[in-house]
TrEMBL record:
Any Pfam family: Acetyltransf_1
EC id: 2.3.1.-
Residue ranges constituting the N-acetyltransferase domain according to the UniProt record: 3-198
Name this polypeptide is given: GNAT family N-acetyltransferase
Keywords: Acyltransferase, Transferase
InterPro entries: Acyl_CoA_acyltransferase, Glycosyl_Hydrolase_84, GNAT_dom
PANTHER family attached to this UniProt entry: O-GLCNACASE, PROTEIN O-GLCNACASE
Lineage: Bacteria, Bacillati, Actinomycetota, Actinomycetes, Pseudonocardiales
Annotated source species: Actinophytocola glycyrrhizae
Domain of life, per lineage: Bacteria
Listed transmembrane segments: none
GO MF, one example: acyltransferase activity
Top EC category: transferase
Amino acid sequence: MNATIRTYQRADEQVLYDICLRTGDSGEDATDLYRDPRLLGEVYVGPYLRFPAALALVGDEDGVAGYVLGVPDTVAFELWCEQSWWPALRTRYPLGTFPAESPDDRIVRLIHHPPTASPDVVERFPAHLHIDLLPRLQGRGDGRRLLTALLDGLASAGAPGIHLGVARANERAIGFYKRMGFTETEAYTHSLVMARPL
């Protein structure tokens, strides 16, 4: 049985934050790593649910158990976040809120100093995405269906290509992205950037 793929609804927000946390350790459950259970979602889910041009789809089978989030224009998204998303979070989470070098502290530093996509990448692959599935939806084709629906939607929105970041430790995800046509475009110590045309 396949999950139903549908558009995100406002009532899904807390579930998506929870899925982000439960997959936030290179695909494994990060619940025990973070003092603040909403912190990961504030960076990797929340802005995608508010940015006007974003696409947000969920996999629903007796409740939402996965999602895919994407934007057609990463540069526009980064500018929007700087104006409309990060300021309130910077007030809520000042630098030094959590012990130095803790997982929470590293996310707070991302809020205050968010990375920006490489110009070389966004020139050819301006869209980007995040996808997370709980174990009950993994390995059954639901991830492929969610990602395909997002890629189709972003292509219809005019994006010529898409990229994503993935931790090197998340070998299962890297294999999935390769099967979906993504190739490595940039490599860093702990992560890769992968991309594909739309």
